[in-house]
Design a protein that fits this description.
By secondary structure, the chain is mainly alpha-helical. The chain has one domain (2-83). It contains three helices and two strands. The protein has helices spanning 34-42, 47-70, 72-85, and strands at 2-5, 11-13. A two-stranded antiparallel sheet has the order 1-2. Strand 1 and strand 2 (11-13) form a beta hairpin. The longest helix is centred in the middle third of the chain and has 24 residues, at 47-70.
């Protein structure tokens, strides 16, 4: 979707999702509740795509969670520093005025 224009006036597109590289596919065997499987087939849901998308979301969520846990002390330390010292140029910002 075109949202803005660059300095030459050409529209540029913003990606709403990052593309992930598609790797080689592997066949897997799964067990799925029969009623859920029937409903998915009836609704025309692509099972492979649905599983792949959900696994991608779950693995990304877990990666972010681990990163946040591993770096929690740093984040807390940085937040405490900002609490004590403020941010550069804070005295010049009027927080009540819209930008």
């Amino acid at each position: 979707m075109t949202n803005e224009f660059d300095e030459t006036g050409k529209p540029f597109r913003r990606r709403t999702r990052t593309r992930r590289r598609l790797g080689p596919k592997r066949a897997v065997n799964l067990s799925v509740d029969a009623e859920i499987l029937t409903a998915a087939k009836t609704q025309g849901i692509n099972l492979s795509a649905a599983l792949e998308n959900e696994l991608a979301r779950l693995t990304e969520d877990e990666r972010v969670k681990r990163f946040q846990e591993e770096n929690r002390e740093y984040f807390e330390s940085y937040n405490a520093y900002i609490e004590r010292n403020g941010v550069f140029g804070e005295e010049f910002q009027d927080w009540d005025e819209p930008v």
